[in-house]
Amino acid sequence: MADKRIFLSLAHMSGHEQRFIQEAFDTNWVVPLGPNVNGFEKDLEGFLGENKRVVALSAGTAAIHLGLLQLGLDAGDEVICQSFTFAASVNPVVYCGATPVFVDSEEDSWNMNPELLETAIKDRIAKTGKKPKAIVPVHLYGMPARMDAILDIAARFEIPVMEDAAEALGSEYRGRKCGTFGDFGALSFNGNKMITTSGGGALICKDDETAARTLFYATQARENRPYYFHEKIGYNYRLSNISAGIGRGQMFVLREHIARRREICKLYTEAFAETPGITVKKNPGKDFDSNFWLSCILVDPEKFGKTADEIRLKLEAANIESRLLWRPMHMQPIYAKNAFYGSGVAEKTFGCGLCLPSGPALTNDDIATVVKEILR
Ligand SMILES: *Cc1c(COP(=O)(O)O)cnc(C)c1O
């Protein structure tokens, strides 16, 4: 048994965070705007490139909500979502009064299957007489979705794309950063994501105009008048200047974190190379460059002798945290009645996958301990 608990994905500080927070206190910017918010947005824009504008928000979920809102969702509209994801990718569709329609994943990337996406779009048009209002692909566990095929279909049917890159900060598809492909892209800075602001997110926007509109909705939709005047429903979604200070500090270690998580995945891959029944999730081809936010394994119980959940329980007994994969949305009671275009991939993958400890502060000894416990 490990003396200290080995966690799935702990936040890891650069040491610069406190300086930005102190500065905020010293200058009395203890509010949801200010120099840290602006600085953090600039840092992210610099990191992402592609001439994008970034608006820092209180959560990744809020980012997806404001992105969808600006794509003009109305009550009765449908939005095509990846089933194999975390509920936060999908719930904002319902916040807008629209209905998610689910599409299965491809076997190699675990993300939205472009063929099923096209099938779903055609079938929804045939059944409802109208086009889905948006497409929400996800880069699950940091693995890029097959964006060229998805964007090609989106363009052909003229349907906008809200890209969920909450887990994929630093991942690249064909040399371009995830989150910069869609009409909007969402990032998350929750405690266990690539970087943390203790809680926060950002919406990646394509130009100044959409960034300004995002800011407008995130700050109660206040019109430009000397008194409070409202023509639209607004939200209180701006990131606090204190949280943004943590984010600025985290930018110092973002590249290191990405490199370390990739290294950890490589260590697991080497360690299990000869183990029958255990496959470490890998980039499906040269177009894909995952940040490996979480290293995942697929377990074949016939060949390995134990199921993924049995491994999870054994690890837990050894004080090591691991986690089953996201349970697909079409298998959730709340979404069980929604339309689903499937081929069995998400269900099958969910049933045999496990996320292993992947945080950037893990030592090579920690990884060796995890491997040893699994092989035992
Ligand atoms: C974390 C996450 C979100 C939501 O981000 P929050 O900052 O926690 O609101 C959305 N989608 C996916 C895939 C996530 O993992």
Task: Chart the SSEs and their pairings.
Blueprint: H1 17-26, H2 35-48, E1 53-57, H3 60-70, E2 78-82, H4 91-95, E3 99-103, H5 114-128, E4 134-136, H6 147-157, E5 162-164, E6 172-173, E7 176-177, E8 184-188, E9 201-205, H7 208-218, H8 241-250, H9 254-271, E10 278-280, E11 288-289, E12 295-299, H10 301-304, H11 308-317, E13 323-324, E14 340-341, H12 345-352, E15 353-356, H13 364-375
Parallel strand pairs: 2-3, 2-4, 3-14, 5-8
Antiparallel strand pairs: 1-9, 6-7, 6-11, 8-9, 10-12, 12-15, 13-15
Helix pairs in contact: 1-8, 2-8, 5-6, 9-13
Bound molecules: pyridoxal-5'-phosphate (PLP).
Describe this structure in words.
By secondary structure, this protein is an alpha/beta fold. It has helices at residues 17-26, 35-48, 60-70, 91-95, 114-128, 147-157, 208-218, 241-250, 254-271, 301-304, 308-317, 345-352, 364-375, and strands spanning 53-57, 78-82, 99-103, 134-136, 162-164, 172-173, 176-177, 184-188, 201-205, 278-280, 288-289, 295-299, 323-324, 340-341, 353-356. The strands form four sheets. The protein has a four-stranded mixed beta sheet. Strands 4-2-3-14 form a four-stranded parallel beta sheet. α2 runs parallel beside α8 (241-250). The longest helix is centred in the C-terminal third of the chain and has 18 residues, at 254-271. The N and C termini lie close together (12 Å). The mean pLDDT is 97. The site of pyridoxal-5'-phosphate has 14 residues, from α3.
